[in-house]
Fold this protein.
Amino acid sequence: MDQDLYINETNEEYDALVIGSGISGGWAAKEFCERGLKTLMIERGRIVEHQKDYIGEGKSVWQYPNRMKVDNLLVEEQYNVQKLCYAFHDGTKHFFGNDKDYPYTTEKGTGFSWIRANQLGGKSLLWHRQSYRFSDYDFNANKLDGHGNDWPIRYKDLQAWYSHVEEHAGISGNYDNLAQLPNSEFLPPFEWTKPEIDLKAKFTELFPDRPMIIGRTAHLTKPSKLHLSQGRVQCQARNECQKGCSFGAYFSTQSSTLPAAAKTGNLHIAANSVVHSLIYDEKTNRVKGVRVVDNDDLSTREYFAKVVFLCASTLGSTQIMLNSTSKKFPNGIANSSGVLGHYLMDHVYNAGASGRIEGYHQEFYSGRRPTGAYIPNFQFEPSKYKKNYKRGYALSGGASRSNWQNNGQLDGIGVDFKHQLTQAGDWYFGLNAQGEMLPRFDNQVSLHASKTDKWGIPQLHINCQWSDNERLMMLDAEQTAKYMLEKAGLKDVKSYTSIDNNSPGLAIHEVGTARMGKDPKTSVLNAYNQTHDIANLFVTDGSSFCSSAVVNPSLTFMALTVRAVDYAVKEMKAKRI
Ligand SMILES: Cc1cc2nc3c(=O)[nH]c(=O)nc-3n(C[C@H](O)[C@H](O)[C@H](O)COP(=O)(O)OP(=O)(O)OC[C@H]3O[C@@H](n4cnc5c(N)ncnc54)[C@H](O)[C@@H]3O)c2cc1C
């Protein structure tokens, strides 16, 4: 462990405090450090060192006592919410938050699955790495149909910043030239399987408005000189990423932004430091620093800086803001608008279809491709589609061959049966929807009036529900996926919609609650993620979103964060901060 990097007690004033070390915090720290600012990254959780602490990596299923299943008692006691995440298993559980320590409440009759990763690196260690740019159709959506406030930015404002983060992070994909899904700066795409190539051609012929593209993902398919210089190498297609990757082949704080920040000598990290609230100076109308409770021994300390960036994840940052009260801001810091905590969104995703592909029995593949097929939102121009809901959805999936057990369907006796056991099974292809959730004032987080956690911080109370818009959208997605697969000739097509079986949260794309906007009366942040109320306070994670759009959000957190740092540093130099 690098002793100069990690600090605990200090009286020093930093140039910048970055709260959180996940995807957003990693970028903020890197950008500040590279601009010469002495930066303190404050992280509530333990230190996770690249490579050394990936304790689940490289182990096969049979090396786990319960074949990857987490012990029932442990799940009951500590992971009652986290167990709902598809990536939760014995090889990853140590990267998920312990629900016993991170309690929250939900409004009666509602639910919200808050997936947490409270350690150095945050959810950057666990994410699925799907990376897509927003388009102007996304930035215009609220304005067009009047749901939510207008984004104060457009695609042109983020375009160069997307490129900036993509070149460093490494995004694989194909130049598809789609209006609704701008190209990134791509590394080579992952390969299609033969049935996918033919299916793609069939879809193009049958549904020209619904191109099927290869999923764009933050993996090094062909590392650049820059990536190699970071100690990162090519993806081995093991698809074991969520256990941690010693190759640094997928983007995480540990593999990418943290080493770049540390290299400058300007980075310091205060781990095990739970930010309780921000220290506000009413005389100067500035945030002076933060109050921290030690993760382990519950002692308290304070850290100070000229500028403060909240990057503690959507709900984490909002919780800190709500808990930072003063005479001027009795309902949460920088909350003169009263919208802090409101307009929480996730993606809706419980609908899809799958079927069997006939033939291709001579086609095999090796390795585990860490991405799939993606059909971007095709309803991006609302006037072109007649439908009974607002906004749209994307479909993602892929083809794979079932193994010799043929999905447990294998039956028989004697020589024929033994012969079948040596053969791979049929090919299957599925499509699953991910849809936009409308921003609604009623979907809100607030602080519980009496319950606190073990660090003395009021628990978050979450009131978030799907609306009929999401229900109607997913019914349509199910029918559309089924229709497309049947038309393309798949057999035994089965479809599903089960939106009300799951509460929001499980897409793990929570956004909103401290939204950007042009009008300080109806938004918390301006076009540069700076709070309208306090010049030296910025919030650059998903809480700043005005709408969820259809695509996965984290690439946009990165772009917003680096743009905000650039702006903040210029403002500091101009002495306006
Ligand atoms: C299984 C899984 C799959 C996903 N797949 C995708 C995907 O394919 N594409 C995509 O775009 N997104 C995906 N996501 C979502 C993505 O991981 C998040 O959007 C992203 O990590 C959020 O970045 P962040 O920096 O805002 O928050 P985080 O990465 O969660 O980091 C926040 C950090 O702040 C710290 N923190 C919180 N509160 C405090 C406090 N009070 N004091 C100090 N520190 C604090 C936390 O401990 C944490 O380290 C996925 C997530 C999961 C779990």
About this structure: The pocket of flavin-adenine dinucleotide is lined by residues 19-25, 42-45, 85, 87, 115, 117-118, 122-124, 126-130, 274-275, 311-313, 316, 320, 508-509, 541-542, 552-554, 557 (CB under 6 Å). Residues 159 and 278 are 32 Å apart (CA to CA). The chain has a mean pLDDT of 96.
